[in-house]
Design a protein that fits this description.
Pfam families: Kelch_KLHDC2_KLHL20_DRC7 (PF24681)
Largest sheet: 9 strands, antiparallel
Protein name: Galactose oxidase
Strand content: 25-35%
Organism: Dysgonomonas termitidis
Structural class: alpha+beta
Keywords: Membrane, Signal, Transmembrane, Transmembrane helix
Number of helices: 13
């Protein structure tokens, strides 16, 4: 087996086409004048203090300008001294303007000679030579110099790019630009600061030399395009539509019985065409391919092994399908894998499922001869299956991975998940197994198509659990050499309902992006199509962010450091000895009030974002202007809205009118209740129009609600983070973000009705279990302060949680805060006695032991 893998990897390295980019793009793209002023981007290299250069400095960076039809005026950078004098580089409507203001205008030049080429990187360098009183700007090959004694005033400076928020020098004009590789050197050319603008933190970026922090407002990090799926479009079709990808024109095409949809990924252009001549059979599986030989789209009808099969083209000009046979049968080959070979002019179909049977073998349609045939692969046996993935290695070799099926093909006889990988030779129709993956912690199936990166000996698939309806898709990167994988990027939500859903993955060669497409049923007759893109190569969440702590080369000063540690230890020992004499009598006020009761976190001012709906700590709604409009929701309106919203998140389809009537209008007739519902929903819509895009939908008997991307909900974000943390890619930043949300308070604490109790208890139980699971993991090291935050969150959602008590008390004692630990214990014991009518059985000493 090892020899086979080695031979295969050598083969694909030598002969497979290398179309994949190697390095991810990076930089900081500025939100420019097309955005509202408060959403524009500003980069401040000196947020806390002035940068000091006694002899002067040089600043260099690369910039790319994205010219649009609108004006591109704005500040590329501003250098401001203590007196408010400035050196500015400004993008004008046509040319670049460079100026220096020191009370009066010292210099101001329109640099008309600079050749500004859109979408191309251009080096820019500024030299400030204080000793020689010289100022120089270089843009590409253009150089301009000035001699002025005023330059001596720029020893201590603030340096800002884009939006400027500094005293009288505020500016909101921002050009549409991207910058990267920002460096500052002293006059001896020694590197002082280096911001690559690649990895970053949530609020800015550290430089690579001194770990000096530059603050960024409204950042748009180019690197994040490789780690965050961008939702391009969502639209509705008939049930079980066909979907395929035209890699020549980079378009995703979708077909149902009534319409033919075309989405051009590059231009984000969506077209919907009415079909004049429909397929005469029921569309029950994804059976459409793109033929690059004639640039045509073909539907094929594979029902049963021994029945008639069809292969017809869609005439895009006439909007007509070719002639087909009328029937009402459903296919036996749902979720099969297919591949069209331009070299052989053949369609190959592998596996599938229907009528309690998993399928094996290969169907082949020869386009030239217009004949169907079936064959069994030679070589290693592949068990019957569906929901696997297939991708092209080269024109003669395919890769097949994963799926769900059984050795006999019978659904009743020990069906299982498969994690094996095969190479299929189209010349010989022979299959060779490469490796089998050990069963993961959570079972998953994969997208219909795989993307094979032969140059880097790996392949990509979208993986997701097939046993859940409300679920998430993750991007898996598998090694071709050995059974290993890692999870990349963030997740994509999906509502998966087996044969009525579909997931596919494509590679856009021209723009070097992965394209993900999902099909989810939303009713008995309709489906939702969502299309996403991700820059290639994909990155993990950990690849995007810098560490919040500086990494230091300790070998440079090991002896002084050891001496310093020894000195601190001695001083600490003396301090602790004195402090412990009368700890209980000398607790300072801060220690008494930091954690007054177990279920109370650190006091904080809660700043709510615009266009938000808040559920933790109490129901709150904030409109587009940042105004709290919660009072507009009278009790009935609030209950109706929350009933529909919470049920939509829980089951994906919402709540039936019958259930609404039973809860809100149980004493009214159906007609009266329906009228009340209509009036109440109308009022809710009027209120929510001031918040953002929020729509109520009725599908069958169910009412549901859908939020636009611009509306924020803390409860929804918490659920997303919890699902993400449960996966393999756990990050401290995600945990902190979750804690910051749920620490605002209980879920809807002021709403006391019977129907809400299940939602509250389900969420609390899930959250508590997740936090306790995190605490018990051996591979994650949490700081003491973060453990205290976890304990506080546990107390908020489970006030008498004994694990939280033990954690908070033991960590507080470890931190030297004995009084805090004792206060937390006393508050817990008191509340325990009130609720249970008996004393808590464990002493303080037992809790912290």
């Amino acid at each position: 087996m090892k020899i086979r893998i080695i031979v295969f990897c050598i083969f694909i390295s030598l002969f497979a086409p290398a179309v994949f980019s190697q390095e991810p793009q990076y930089g900081l793209k500025f939100n420019s004048n097309t955005y509202e002023p408060e959403m524009r981007t500003g980069l401040n290299l000196s947020p806390d203090d002035y940068l000091s250069f006694s002899d002067g400095f040089s600043m260099a960076f690369n910039a790319k300008f994205h010219f649009k039809d609108i004006h591109n005026y704005g500040y590329i950078f501003r250098i401001i001294n203590e007196k408010g004098n400035s050196i500015d580089l400004i993008m004008g409507d046509i040319n670049v303007v460079f100026s220096m203001l020191s009370g009066d205008i010292v210099c101001s030049n329109t640099l008309a000679e600079v050749d500004m080429i859109p979408e191309q990187w251009m080096p820019i360098r500024l030299n400030i030579d204080i000793g020689n009183e010289e100022l120089e700007i270089k843009i590409g090959k253009y150089v301009k110099k000035w001699n002025t004694p005023e330059i001596r005033k720029f020893c201590d400076v603030k340096i800002m790019f884009g939006k400027t928020d500094y005293l009288k020098k505020q500016a909101i004009d921002v050009p549409d630009m991207t910058i990267k590789d920002l460096e500052i050197r002293d006059m001896s050319k020694k590197l002082q600061y280096s911001w690559k603008l690649s990895k970053h933190t949530s609020g800015g970026v550290y430089d690579d030399v001194k770990y000096y922090f530059a603050k960024c407002e409204n950042p748009n990090w180019v690197l994040d395009y490789n780690g965050t799926w961008e939702k391009r479009i969502t639209f509705t079709t008939g049930i079980s539509p066909y979907l395929t990808y035209d890699f020549d024109k980079n378009i995703v095409t979708v077909a149902d019985q009534r319409s033919f949809y075309i989405f051009t990924v590059k231009d984000n252009l969506f077209e919907k065409h009415t079909v004049n001549k429909k397929l005469s059979y029921k569309m029950s599986s994804n059976q459409m391919i793109y033929n690059p030989l004639d640039s045509g789209f073909y539907a094929y009808n594979l029902i049963k092994e021994d029945s008639a099969k069809e292969f017809v083209r869609f005439n895009l000009d006439k909007r007509e399908w070719g002639a087909t046979t009328v029937h009402e049968h459903t296919t036996d080959y749902r979720h099969h894998n297919r591949y069209f070979s331009p070299k052989y002019n053949r369609l190959y179909i592998f596996g599938g499922y229907g009528h309690l049977k998993y399928k094996g073998g290969v169907f082949i349609y020869d386009v030239k001869d217009k004949t169907w045939s079936k064959t069994v692969l030679k070589g290693d046996s592949i068990a019957p299956r569906y929901l696997g993935g297939m991708g092209e290695i080269d024109e003669d070799h395919l890769l097949l991975f994963g799926g769900y099926g059984s050795e006999t093909g019978d659904q009743a006889l020990q069906p299982q998940f498969y994690y094996d990988s095969y190479i299929i030779n189209l010349k010989t129709m022979e299959a060779k197994k490469i490796w089998t993956l050990e069963n993961p912690l959570e079972n998953f199936v994969v997208s219909n198509s795989l993307v094979v990166d032969s140059k880097n000996k790996c392949f990509y698939a979208l993986g997701f659990p097939s046993m859940k309806y409300n679920s998430h898709i993750s991007l898996y990167k598998f090694s071709l050499e050995k059974p290993e994988y890692e999870i990349m990027a963030d997740q994509i939500p999906i509502k998966f309902k087996d044969v009525f859903s579909y997931v596919d993955l494509f590679y856009d060669v021209s723009d070097k992006k992965l394209i993900a497409a999902t099909v989810s049923p939303i009713a008995d007759t309709t489906s939702n199509i969502s299309i996403y893109s991700l820059a290639f190569p994909p990155l993990k969440n950990s690849d995007l962010y810098q560490s919040e702590t500086k990494e230091t080369n300790i070998s440079l000063f090991i002896l002084p450091l050891l001496f310093f540690i020894f000195l601190l230890s001695a001083l600490y020992f003396v301090w602790r000895k004195r402090k412990n004499i009368n700890t209980e009598q000398h607790q300072i006020l801060d220690e008494k009030t930091e954690f007054p009761v177990p279920h109370t976190g650190v006091n904080m001012v809660r700043i709510l974002p615009k266009k938000s709906i808040i559920l933790f700590g109490g129901f709150q709604v904030v409109d587009k202007q940042g105004i709290d409009i919660t009072s507009d929701f009278k009790p009935l309106l609030k209950n109706l809205f929350l009933l529909i919203f919470l049920h939509t998140i829980k089951n994906g389809k919402g709540i039936s009118f019958t259930r609404l009537k039973d809860i809100l209008w149980f004493d009214k007739s159906e007609e009266s209740a329906n009228n009340n519902r209509g009036v109440a929903l109308s009022k809710i819509r009027q209120i929510l129009d001031n918040v953002g895009v929020i729509s109520f939908n009725k599908k069958g008997i169910y009412w549901s609600v859908e939020f636009g991307d611009d509306v924020y909900c803390d409860y929804y974000e918490a659920l997303i983070l919890m699902e993400k943390i449960k996966g393999n890619d756990v990050t401290i930043s995600d945990i902190k973000r979750l804690l910051s949300i749920v620490s605002a308070g209980e879920l809807l604490p002021n709403l006391q009705t019977e129907w809400i109790d299940a939602f509250k208890s389900d969420f609390s139980n899930e959250l508590v279990d997740l936090i306790l699971q995190l605490i018990r993991q051996k591979n994650i090291v949490f700081s003491d302060s973060l453990l205290i935050e976890m304990a506080n969150a546990l107390f908020i959602h489970d006030p008498l949680n004994e694990d939280a008590l033990k954690l908070k008390c033991s960590v507080s004692v470890k931190m030297g805060k004995n009084g805090l630990a004792r206060n937390a214990y006393n508050a817990f014991v008191k509340e325990y006695a009130v609720l249970f009518g008996t004393e808590y059985k464990y002493s303080f000493e037992q809790v912290i032991s």
